[in-house]
């Protein structure tokens, strides 16, 4: 991982040029750095960002000066999932291949093509993205909060509201209180959940979880969370894992009651395997739910969540941690890997 100069071409048909004003540092970026998600081409990392439109290609209904959140999962709009309103399951997107919709890249460095991580490559000052990746938002929305709407906030809130569809009064445990986990806590509170149990090794993050709506917080290093859930809740209705750890994922079904659901929100490394008690799952009617991007449609959900923030109903700014210049990316990744602080924002 190095810092280098890149140039970016002008937007083509259906594309948007954006000046990045803030970018969040997410565990998905760390997966690439650590080799958990292999990629044999050079990448510009960063997939959680917001900025200002500077130029648009033909066929684009945005204007220079518009403020936008960048969505890393740019749907094709044509496949069966998109037609059914489930854009998070799009089978035609090229974003997960780290490219633009035509399979190309807008970045060049030292005469060599460099590819945008998840179709964005937001750890730089300027990007070119497909129109479906640029979600217009109010100019009143701070850029640091807007950046987190591109991944962590939308994923976490969506996990509770869209994927699990938690009902008022139901109980839930959230394992891991980084950006996505804390956003899940917020989503549970928004959904009207009763007991909301937040688990993390960091006292700072547990404190943040209490501020955001957790009714109980547990230190995972000193408490048997499975036993606690059984004793105090009779098993939770839902258990969310927001780290991507196979060891923690394996414990989720044991945290929930009969008929409960384990929700996999954190992304593990490619090829990760988890042992599951199949008899318990079948006998007790438990479910395991996969959660990609909070089962969200960015063009719909991002403006809605932004509106809730601007109306004072969601304190999203409490998720924002340190602000660092992009030259301090190594320190930001070190904090992320060590579980230090809240969501770091890089400023180009």
Automatic annotation (TrEMBL):
Required co-factors: Zn(2+)
UniProt-recorded name of the protein: Alcohol dehydrogenase catalytic domain-containing protein
Domain Enoyl reductase (ER): 1-347
Domain of life: Bacteria
Family: Belongs to the zinc-containing alcohol dehydrogenase family.
GO terms under cellular component: cytosol
UniProt keyword terms in alphabetical order: Metal-binding, NAD, Oxidoreductase, Zinc
InterPro entries xrefs: ADH-like_C, ADH-like_N, ADH_Zn_CS, ER, GroES-like_sf, NAD(P)-bd_dom_sf
GO molecular function: S-(hydroxymethyl)glutathione dehydrogenase [NAD(P)+] activity; zinc ion binding
PANTHER family per UniProt: ALCOHOL DEHYDROGENASE (PTHR43880), ALCOHOL DEHYDROGENASE CLASS-3 (PTHR43880:SF12)
Organism this protein belongs to: Pseudoclavibacter chungangensis
UniProt GO BP: formaldehyde catabolic process
